[in-house]
């Protein structure tokens, strides 16, 4: 679960009316709460963006593992066709590793989807709390008469610009984190089976060519000889 879960839940569940009644300076308290909600939205949006990118990478890795598994199955068949049970066994072991990797990615994808749903809902709740807090703060300042509407508008404008800037930065940011390199322990097996696959393809093509060239030519038809009567 995302790192700021406790703070987010506390902000969402906060009772503004109760907080204002118990605060010595309600306007100050509301201003502080508004800033905390804004920071939580920014932080949570960053967590959401990272989770979405991890999800896309996990989906790509799952697809890769599934394709690799199918390829190893085909290679095992080729090895058996060439009476190489040892290579076939190695290929099937590699296929099982691909299956394990695929299952791990499926579990990771399921967890990421749950996190993304929860974070998306939390952002909606925080935005609703932010709207409520700003409205209460504007009302309180108007009642106190201590801040001009221009000052409120200026503060809101600065906050909006800051959040827009954060959003633009997140869209441009490319995370350099990459999954560790895949194991290469089966490279020799794969290389030898690939050579067998290539040889089989060539042999099949040669056999096809031999079949086309082996058709015997039809002998030319002979004309019947005319019988002649010999003189007695």
Structure commentary:
This protein has 232 residues and is an all-alpha fold. It has one domain (5-174, 187-205). It is 79% helix and 0% strand. Helix 1 runs parallel beside helix 4, helix 3 (26-81) packs parallel to helix 5 and helix 3 (26-81) packs across helix 6 (187-213). The protein is rod-shaped, with a radius of gyration of 37 Å. Mean pLDDT is 76; it is low at 147-152 and 171-183.
Could you give a short description of this structure?
With 232 residues, the chain is mainly α. It contains 6 helices and no strands.
Note the quaternary state here: single chain
Q: How many separate domains make up the residues? A: 1
- Unreliable runs: 147-152, 171-183
Distance between the termini: 122 Å
